Structure formats: structure tokens, C-alpha cells
Amino acid sequence: MTDSRNIFVSLKIPFPSRREAEIAYDVLRIDNEPKRSFIEKTLKLQDNQLLVEFNGQHAKNVRVGVTSFFESLLLCCETLDQFGPATSEKYEFY
Description:
Blueprint: E1 7-14, H1 18-28, E2 39-46, E3 49-56, H2 59-83
Antiparallel strand pairs: 1-3, 2-3
Helix pairs in contact: 1-2
């Protein structure tokens, strides 16, 4: 018997400030899930929170997608901690 229901995971990740959440959002939204992962990932920004949704048919694929996302999120957070939050609202290096 095959179960056609999808597995849905929703995460709400708070950041100390809206600017830090924007930086994380801009960094993490670049990497789309590969087609062979068989999951869909959606990122949204709401005030100082990053909202992430995963949707897939197989628990293993969703688990791998969530684990991969958390690895990227940890790297992003460690980088923010190391270099501190952005001092301005604009990126003026170009």
C-alpha cells in the first residue's frame, strides 16, 4: 500500500534583529534544492524571523533536506557571530 500524503516540516527561526534575519534570508535563499532531492523548500522573512517550509513525499528526503539546511544555517549564524551584525541597512561595496 502506498501512502500519497506528503511530509511537511515548518520551522520558525528567530534572530536578534531584523537586519540579521535579512542577511540570513539573503544568504540561504540562493541555494535551491536539487531536483534529485525530491523536496520543495520555501523561505520567507517575517520581521526578525526566518520561516522555512519543507515538503516531500519521503521522510528520508525531507530529513536530508532539513539537515542540509541546518548545516548552512549554522555556518551563517557562526559567520554573523564572528563578524557581528551589519552596521548599515545598505550594502554599499559595489
